[in-house]
């Protein structure tokens, strides 16, 4: 497996169902412990819905709680390509360099989400999927086996941006499979525990408050947590 060609796949969608409407696709190619290429496309929502992509209210409400930078990528404010073009581009990206469908290992976070949803989209678009089902890989399982979490590597960029998430997950994959090649910067080592705790507090609060109407934005949730901690003298 170490010598295989790995692809880390991340989707942004408007549902969590297998036939979810895809609004952005990020994918990173990893070989021998190094990132060698990446792919990103925003998808036109109407084209995804026209091919049977599902949109659900709960996911739309969840998106309302996310940072403006993340929502901008999926809001339609920026142009997206037709879903068929995006999927054709992803297939070409994965098979570039003479790979056959039997070779790529495709990592989802987890594979029951990203891999299943994009496979359904390929089927609805009439495009052969670029990998075989037996090469589905689950990043969450690998991280658990290695004693790692999604915060084991400092996140760079905007969370819930498909390419930024895929890059982060690729770095986690590299840390899990090729730990000798990971050399965190000293600043990262010092800042990671505090930032990890802070982000996990916000994530936990967002889950607890997701049913509030109207839903809180992530920035509002962060402000409330910071105010509460400041009142207890936990933060400056």
List keywords for this structure.
236 residues, alpha/beta, Nucleotidyltransferase, domain 5, 5-stranded mixed β-sheet, 9 helices, 5 strands, nucleic acid binding, Rv2179c-like, RNaseH-like_sf
What does this structure look like?
With 236 residues, the chain is α/β, with parallel strands linked by helices. It folds into 2 domains: 5-183, Ribonuclease H-like superfamily/Ribonuclease H (Nucleotidyltransferase, domain 5, 2-Layer Sandwich), CATH 3.30.420; 186-230, no CATH class. Helices cover 45% and strands 15% of the residues. The protein contains 9 helices and 5 strands; from the N terminus they run E-E-E-H-H-H-H-E-H-E-H-H-H-H. It has helices at 45-50, 57-64, 68-74, 83-95, 114-125, 139-146, 162-177, 186-208, 218-231, and strands spanning 5-13, 22-31, 34-42, 105-108, 136-138. Helix 6 runs parallel beside helix 7 (162-177) and helix 8 (186-208) packs across helix 9 (218-231). The longest helix is centred in the last third of the chain and has 23 residues, at 186-208. The radius of gyration is 18 Å and the shape is globular. Mean pLDDT is 87; it is low at 185-193.
């Amino acid at each position: 497996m170490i010598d295989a060609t790995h692809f880390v796949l991340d989707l942004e969608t408007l549902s969590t169902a297998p036939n979810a409407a895809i609004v952005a696709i990020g994918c990173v190619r990893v070989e021998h412990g190094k990132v060698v290429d990446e792919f990103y496309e925003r998808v036109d929502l109407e084209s995804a819905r026209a091919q049977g992509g599902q949109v659900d209210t709960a996911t739309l409400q969840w998106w309302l709680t996310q940072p403006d930078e993340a929502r901008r990528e999926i809001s339609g404010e920026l142009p997206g390509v037709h879903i068929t073009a995006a999927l054709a581009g992803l297939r070409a990206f994965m098979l570039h360099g003479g790979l056959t469908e039997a070779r790529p290992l495709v990592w989802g976070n987890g594979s029951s989400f990203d891999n299943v949803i994009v496979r359904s989209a390929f089927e609805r678009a009439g495009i052969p999927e670029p990998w075989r089902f037996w090469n589905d890989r689950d990043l969450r399982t690998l991280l658990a086996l290695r004693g790692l979490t999604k915060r084991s590597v400092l996140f760079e960029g905007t969370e819930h941006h498909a390419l930024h998430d895929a890059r982060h997950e690729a770095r986690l994959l590299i840390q899990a499979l090729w730990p000798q090649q990971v050399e965190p910067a000293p600043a990262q080592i010092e800042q990671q525990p505090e930032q990890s705790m802070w982000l996990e507090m916000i994530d936990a609060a967002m889950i607890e408050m997701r049913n509030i109407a109207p839903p809180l934005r992530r920035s509002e949730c962060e402000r409330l947590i910071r105010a509460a901690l400041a009142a207890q003298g936990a933060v400056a």
